[in-house]
Design goal:
Blueprint (H helix, E strand, L loop, with lengths): L1 H23 L10 E10 L7 E13 L2 E17 L2 E12 L11 E15 L4 E15 L4 E16 L9 E12 L6 E13 L4 E18 L2 E20 L19
Parallel strand pairs: 1-11
Antiparallel strand pairs: 1-2, 2-3, 3-4, 4-5, 5-6, 6-7, 7-8, 8-9, 9-10, 10-11
Protein name: DUF2490 domain-containing protein
Keywords: Signal
Length: about 260
């Protein structure tokens, strides 16, 4: 009975995500092609004995399905487990956007980013929830030699539901879904919405793979009579393929804490 209730909760989250994605596309720019995100992550989780951890991640994106490469991310950071369900992280990265029609030209822009993050996790018998709060500092260098600086706040609600086990352990198939909002402190406040739904497999204690769908909607505004008016919504659908490798520290006498195969960005 509890399994059925938890399954309905996750299905409701997925349905809400699809509705949000559909709403985000009205009004919209002309239909964009489906793109692809490739994500590779190495994690070193903290545990009861070693509270410090870290991660490194590389990401590549294409404008079309498996073609027209134009974007990459390189990022890494360190974390500290205040307690098993409360982790703080400081990290940074480099983000590069190019014109897929002319990859020999310099990037359209490169970004250096620093962020501070709090992650809270909640575990029931099956359903796993993760609340992520992030503050970002972003430095831009554009092709025309201009520069810029922005800050941004992000909140993500991430849900996991293992299907054939109560935990996400070796041999587990699981569902994953999240919705993330991006806020600009200088306004207009609501800058972006990202919705994800997918299925994953925890191969063993080290390796997890996921494939899913993400809709990312960027909201564009213009100033009119002292107010910011929503002009259009640039929303794009993408297939996500993610690979995670987790480094396991030596075992301790304390009980192991379940770690979730969360995407870093």
């Amino acid at each position: 009975m509890q399994h059925n209730v938890l399954s309905r909760i996750l299905l409701t989250l997925l349905a809400a995500a699809w509705c949000a994605a559909a709403h985000a596309q009205t009004p919209a720019n002309p239909v964009q092609p489906w793109g692809t995100w490739f994500i590779g992550t190495v994690q070193l989780p903290g545990n009861a004995t070693h509270k410090f951890g870290g991660f490194a991640e590389v990401q590549a994106r294409t404008n079309g399905l498996f073609k027209q490469y134009f974007y990459n991310e390189l990022k890494a950071g360190g974390s500290y487990d205040i307690d098993p369900n409360f982790t703080v992280t400081i990290a940074g990265g480099r983000y590069s956007t190019s014109d897929y029609r002319d990859l020999d030209a310099p990037p359209l822009n490169t970004e250096k980013r620093l962020w501070e993050q709090l992650t809270l996790t909640q575990y029931s018998k099956r359903l796993k929830l993760e609340h992520r709060y992030r503050i970002e500092q972003r430095w831009f260098n554009f092709r025309d030699d201009s520069t810029g600086f922005r800050q941004r706040f992000r909140y993500r609600l991430n849900a996991f539901l293992p299907l054939n086990n109560t935990t996400i352990s070796a041999g587990t198939v699981f569902l994953a879904a999240y919705n993330e909002i991006f806020l600009n402190p200088k306004g207009p406040v609501f800058e972006r919405n990202r919705v994800y739904g997918g299925v994953g497999y925890q191969v063993n204690s080290h390796v997890a793979v996921q494939i899913g769908y993400v809709n990312q909607a960027n909201y564009n505004y213009t100033a009119r009579q002292g107010q910011f008016i929503l002009q259009n919504t640039a929303a794009k659908n993408n297939i996500v393929m993610a690979f995670t490798y987790r480094i396991i520290r030596p075992s301790t006498t304390l009980p192991a804490v379940e770690k979730l195969p969360s995407q870093q960005d």
